[in-house]
């Protein structure tokens, strides 16, 4: 019998999508605990457990059973500072988070990847995202949901010139190439967490927009 997840592990709660997802999770009456490690303190909530520090350092210290885990980690090469630093976050840290989530009992992992993720891509960003997806699949999760959103739309805490310039055009592109509001992605992720299933499911941006309405 499938049970609604009551204990959640969330990485990336201070990011654009993570903030919306955290609000959603904390408003759900069925959720008893959200374990959300972060680099800066989050607003206090009765159901929120918020260890503060670098995620890589906090992972071994995380305790308590979790039913499902959401990974909203993501950076850019410019933001990370180099290709190596980008890979350390968007590949290595994602895998370490996923492994710890399994150790804490999670059966369902939901992870944000990116449109165009492909381990054989000639584009470094897309290749790293594709390699991350393949490595998560190799972890043999009971249920793994990979979200591939297009450009995320919404107010970020940091300024990204490229995204600001692209956003007006991304709103009008067809199908999976159209930009998606971060709040809609968060709603879609929660709906996907409630779906019973086994194995790997890859959800492209057009379906994410539909689920996030």
UniProtKB/TrEMBL annotation:
Gene3D superfamilies in the record: NAD(P)-binding Rossmann-like Domain (3.40.50.720)
* Name assigned to this protein: NAD(P)H-binding protein
Domain NAD(P)-binding span(s) in chain numbering: 12-137
Q: Which residues form the signal peptide?
A: none
Stored SUPFAM superfamilies: NAD(P)-binding Rossmann-fold domains
């Amino acid at each position: 019998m499938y049970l609604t997840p009551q204990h959640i592990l969330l990485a990336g709660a201070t990011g654009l999508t993570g903030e919306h997802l955290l609000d959603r999770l904390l408003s759900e009456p069925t959720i008893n605990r959200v374990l959300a490690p972060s680099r800066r303190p989050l607003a206090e909530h009765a159901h929120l457990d918020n260890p503060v520090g670098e995620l890589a350092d906090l992972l071994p210290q995380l305790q308590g059973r979790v039913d499902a885990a959401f990974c909203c980690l993501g950076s850019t090469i410019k933001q990370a500072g180099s290709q190596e630093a980008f890979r350390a976050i968007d590949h290595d840290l994602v895998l370490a988070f996923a492994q710890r989530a399994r150790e804490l009992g999670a059966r369902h992992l939901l992870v944000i990847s990116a449109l165009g993720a492909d381990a054989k891509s000639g584009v470094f960003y897309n290749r790293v995202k594709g390699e991350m997806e393949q490595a998560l699949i190799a972890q043999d999760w009971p249920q793994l949901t990979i979200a591939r959103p297009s450009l995320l739309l919404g107010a970020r805490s940091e300024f990204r010139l490229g995204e600001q310039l692209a956003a007006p055009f991304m709103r009008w592109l067809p199908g999976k190439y159209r930009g998606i509001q971060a709040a809609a992605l968060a709603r879609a992720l929660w709906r996907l967490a409630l779906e019973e299933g086994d194995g790997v499911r890859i959800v492209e941006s057009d379906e994410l927009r539909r689920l996030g309405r």
